[in-house]
Each structure stands twice: as structure tokens, then as C-alpha cells.
Amino acid sequence: MLSRNGLRGTAAGVFLTTTVFAGAFYFGDNESTAETFEDVTEEEALEVLESSGFVIKTLEEHNELVESEASLEARVRELEELKADAGNEEAADEEDTVGQDMVYQTALVVTSGMTFGDIAGILERTGIIDDRSEFNDYISNNNLEMALRQGEFIFDSSMTIPSIVSELTS
């Protein structure tokens, strides 16, 4: 807290500063601080802009550019749609021929210390199963965590998860 004399000194300082700035503002020479502007012709403005690297177009030229850009964008969209349609047809043809014929097969050796989680990761990486969590859920839902047996097994991607698990546990 300020004492009474400290507060008076602060008030006097604020008053004095305000008086000095007000005097400078009202009685100062305004014309010396203001810049003078000269009128610039349209030709001079164009020259300055062109020398700075700007390209100047009339309104008609601008409208023509906008119209041509819109027509080009429409043509690009048409081509993209045609390309997408052609790509979809090719993908459908490939799925019909390749997707049904491709069967992955792997040999798996289950050793001591392996878990169903390890086996699920191997089967997922080799393309035998699509989702390791689905495999692990099947194991836990059927309480088969401790039923894993050691040995060599051969699996292919046409097998279901229950058939894979039955081979691993029987």
C-alpha cells in the first residue's frame, strides 16, 4: 500500500505527464509529421506493378481465365470418374480370378513356451487368419488357454478358426 504522500506523488506524476502529452498534441506542428501524397496516374501504377513482377489483366481477361479454369476442372472430374470406373472394373475382374484361387499354406511348429497369442500372430502374418483378436477371442470364449499341445501342424487359409484350434488342442 502506498502512503498518503506516495499516492499524492503518483497522482502528480500522472497529471504532469498527461499535461505534457496534451500540449504536444494540440500545439505541435501537425504538417511536419504528416506525409504528403502525390496523385499517381493509372499508367504509373501499372508500370510500378509490372516492374515488381505482377501481371495485370483486364476484367474481361480475368473472366475468360475463370471460365476456362472451370471447364478444365469439369473435364478433369470426368476423366477421374472414367478412370475410377475402369479401375473398379479391373479390380472386380482381378478379385473374380485371383481372390478365389489364392490359398495360403503354412507349416507351424509349436514348441514349449509358445502361447495362443504367439500362434495368432504367426497365423495372421502368414495370411491364414485375417484377425488375431478374433482367434484369441475364440480361444478365451471356449476356455482353451491351457489346451495347447506341441508339435508340427500344417494350416491353409481355407480353414476356419474352429478347425485350426481343434488341430492345435486335440
UniProtKB/TrEMBL annotation:
Domain of life: Bacteria
Coiled-coil regions listed: 62-92
Keyword Coiled coil appears in the UniProt entry: yes
Annotated Gene3D superfamilies: Endolytic murein transglycosylase (3.30.1490.480)
Record key words, sorted: Coiled coil
Name this protein carries in UniProt: Endolytic transglycosylase MltG
Source organism of the structure: Alteribacter keqinensis
